């Protein structure tokens, strides 16, 4: 089962099965998106926007 992680810095999205992951561009900890991978990949770019914004807003 893959989870969705979003970089709060460059908005890179990765799908991983780990608890935590780092952005390979920025070397910052990526934020876990509260949506399963299987659902996320069905969204268009507009529908993905709230998840990216949420990742950027978390402390
Ligand atoms: Zn990044």
Task: List the SSEs and their pairings.
Layout: E1 3-6, E2 13-16, E3 31-36, H1 37-40, H2 45-57
Antiparallel strand pairs: 1-2, 1-3
The structure holds zinc ion.
What would your notes on this structure say?
The protein has 59 residues and is of the alpha+beta class. It has one domain. Helices cover 29% and strands 24% of the residues. It is built from 2 helices and 3 strands. The chain has a 3-stranded antiparallel sheet. Bound molecules: zinc ion.
How would you briefly describe this protein structure?
The chain is an alpha+beta fold and 59 residues long. The protein has 2 helices and 3 strands. It starts with a strand and ends with a helix.
- Report the mean per-residue pLDDT as an integer: 95
Helix content: 25-40%
Described by strand count, sense and barrel closure, the largest sheet is: 3 strands, antiparallel
C-alpha termini separation: 26 Å
Please write the string of helix (H) and strand (E) elements. Answer: EEEHH
Tell me the radius of gyration. 10 Å
> How many DSSP helices?
2
Any ligands, ions or cofactors bound here, and which?
Answer: zinc ion
User: Helix/strand-derived class?
Assistant: alpha+beta
Number of structural domains? 1
Beta-strand residue percentage: 15-25%
Report the count of strand segments.
3
Low-confidence stretches: none
Inertia-based shape? globular
Strand order of the largest sheet: 2-1-3
């Amino acid at each position: 089962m893959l989870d969705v992680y979003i970089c709060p810095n460059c908005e890179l999205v990765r799908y991983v099965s780990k608890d935590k992951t780092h952005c390979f561009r920025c070397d910052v900890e990526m934020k876990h998106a509260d949506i399963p991978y299987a659902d996320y990949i069905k969204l268009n770019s507009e529908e993905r926007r709230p998840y990216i914004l949420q990742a950027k807003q978390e402390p």
